[in-house]
Amino acid sequence: MTKIFNIDSLNLNNDKLKEAGLALKNGKTVIFPTETVYGLGANGLDETAIKKIYKAKGRPSDNPLILHLSNVEDIKKYAYINEELLNKIKKITPGPITFVLIKKEIVPDIVTANRETVAIRIPAHPIARELIKNAGVPIAAPSANISGKPSLTRSKDVIEEMNNRVDYIITSDDPDFGLESTVIDLTKKNVVLLRPGPISPEKLKDIFGKIEVPDFIYGKKEADIAIAPGMKYRHYSPEKPVILVKDFSKDFKNDIKNFKKPVFFILKENLKFIKNDGFDYEIIDKNYFEFAVKLFALLRKYDKTHDAIIIESLKDEGIGIAIMNRLRKAASKII
Ligand code: TXA
Ligand code: MG
């Protein structure tokens, strides 16, 4: 039986967070909110506990996990890092960004899927921070969804998908970003972007100088398994087909004619191309951050009620890069 706590992030319930923190330390699994998506956590130093994460998600064991810490200085305990790099990291943490570094011996192989590197994130969400502090150990946590599904960003979706798969679920209000953290590799000569997210390449450039953005970020090539293990799996996918449309002014109707009840996610200025057909739709906000925060919740919602999700391709700019990265993986067809 899963114990479910709902906690207001502006008014923390310390008794509940102490209980969940202690449970984590003692080998239990806890789903918790972060500013990006919900995480499924276990004691990052306890191999038996970490095995439960892979089982609860149905995650392939060669896909490594992120270690979540509450304090930037603690990075030194788990990875090799010099002061200069640590100072740069301090400029963007806590927050929605994950750093790949050379791991120290103390990090179990099961966390890193036998790699020499470990991914580390210091979340900004008050519940995540308090929980990690209470646990007193680093928390290994992937996104809380069943492997291959869109990440979880809404409390009702978390309970629906994960109830009875973990020991505790902590739900709270909606996240700030709704897309997973930016992942960067700091072990190479240049900083390499492994997963685009809320912290944009432009922002990273300000802090780290040169940033390498591999082609697979834009879906142009298959991911190089050696550097980005998580990228090779189909991801973020609803059951129903997702179709990405580059240009609604061109004829796209032939590609969707077999669907009886599609829904469109579309920019307001392009509504004119579908309006007369009586299709259901969601407007994509001009401010992509507003769309990002609800994207996974919308995919889950329409997966239940419609037979296809037709989405307008967005510009690969700012958080648009992260949105498009997820949508290209979710898409069964790009037209
Ligand atoms: O926002 C987030 O990052 C959320 C919250 C819960 O913190 N977590 C998350 O975890 O999205 P997950 O496991 O779904 O995605 C982690 C990504 C995967 O693509 C994984 O392959 C990659 O980070 N990763 C983990 N360790 C790595 C490593 N040592 N080297 C390269 N990539 C790594
Ligand atoms: Mg994930």
Automatic annotation (TrEMBL):
UniProt-listed Pfam families: Sua5_C, Sua5_yciO_yrdC
Localization per record: Cytoplasm
Membership in a protein family: Belongs to the SUA5 family.
Family matches, as InterPro entries: DHBP_synth_RibB-like_a/b_dom, Sua5-like_dom, Sua5/YwlC_C, Sua5_C, T(6)A37_SUA5, TC-AMP_synthase_SUA5
Matches recorded under PANTHER family: SUA5, THREONYLCARBAMOYL-AMP SYNTHASE
Official protein name in the record: Threonylcarbamoyl-AMP synthase
Main location: cytoplasm
UniProt KW keywords: ATP-binding, Cytoplasm, Nucleotide-binding, Nucleotidyltransferase, Transferase, tRNA processing
Binding site for L-threonine: 36, 68, 121, 141, 181
Coiled coil ranges: none
Catalytic activity, reaction form: L-threonine + hydrogencarbonate + ATP = L-threonylcarbamoyladenylate + diphosphate + H2O
Top-level enzyme category: transferase
One GO cellular component, as annotated: cytoplasm
One GO process term, biological-process aspect: tRNA processing
EC number assigned by the record: 2.7.7.87
Residue ranges of domain YrdC-like in the record: 14-199
GO MF: ATP binding; double-stranded RNA binding; L-threonylcarbamoyladenylate synthase; tRNA binding
